[in-house]
Amino acid sequence: MIDFRYHIVSIVAIFLALAIGIVLGSTVLNAPLVASTEAVTAQLRARNTELQGQINVSQARDGAGDTFVADRLPQLVQGALTGEHVVIFEAPGADSKLRDPMEHVLTAAGAVVSGRVALTEKYLTAEQAGLVDELATRAKPATLEFSLTATPYDKAAAVLANAVLTSDKAQAGKDNPTASGVLDSFQRDGLVTLEGDPGKRATLALLMTPATPYEGETAEAQNSALVSLAAGLDDGGTGTVVAGAVPPSTTAGVIAAVRADSDVAAKVSTVDNPDMAFGQAAVVYSLREQAAGDAGQYGLGSDATATEPSPTASSTPTPEAGAGG
Asked: φ and ψ at 169, to 5 degrees?
């Protein structure tokens, strides 16, 4: 029979084993463990320093390269959009810092910027979809027909495009008699603000996206409304480019929504880095490509198909008769 002394001896043995383990852990085993930890930490610090150096070099090179392009941007785009008229649309939250640079590069390319149509937050508010539908239906010219499946934003896009765009270059730059009434009604109800003279018909449209992607439960609907606008603008003129600065790691937002819609992506171009000089050049080249009937998805994002459009082929000069070989 196990007596009380057996229990006492067992308990003492357990505590003695724990004490021995603690002593061994803090003396015999502790030194190698500390040394190993310090060695790993030193390796990680060295690797971190190396990687940070590589990042700094990469950023310096990228900055220098973009500065080089920026200094020569007017020459790079010169004549690319000669004879074209461009109207600029801005989504709510579009980066105001890109306004002047984009207008300057379009002008340097030979385009005439007719004006700017900035959508307000109210335009994309779900509660105002009925108002958008009502305005579009009321402002619809007799020559324009809506699809039976058209959403309020499909209708608004068609009406706005009909007011400010044309596919007939002979009409470019000329006043559209119905434009003022359409634009005034949208502006009077707080859906858009106007700058310049967008009523003078443009041939191409540039839609600037929000500086940061929309978030929350309404984000998908807001993106969808702007995709509808891009598609409608493309149908109204000779082409549309959607542009906005998007971090390469981001897979959300208007540009991603355009690229994810195969029907829209087949006819509307996107550029995801207009905050960079070569991205601004890509916007110009994309508009030129649109005018020629082609489309593409450009920039640095994972869903882009190329960094910029392929350069147009130039004709080979023909030697003059009698010229030397």
From this structure: -65, -25
Domain region containing 47:
1-77
Residue 277 Cα distances to 58, 282, 307, angstroms: 17, 9, 12
Amino acid at 254: V
Strands 204-208 and 269-271: unpaired
56 and 87 both lie in a single domain: no
pTM: 0.77
Taking the C-alpha atoms of residue 283 and residue 86, their distance in angstroms, rounded to an integer, is: 12
Q: Which two tokens stand for residue 56?
A: 């700094």
CA-CA distance, 132 to 191, in Å (whole number)? 8
**Do 145 and 188 share a structural domain?**
yes
**Per residue in 43-66, pLDDT tens?**
777 767 655 655 555 554 555 456
CATH of the domain at 118: 3.40.50
Instruction: Please state, rounded to an integer, the average pLDDT across all residues of the chain.
Output: 85
Asked if residue 127 and residue 45 are part of one domain, the reply reads: no
Whether 96 and 182 map to the same domain: the answer is: yes
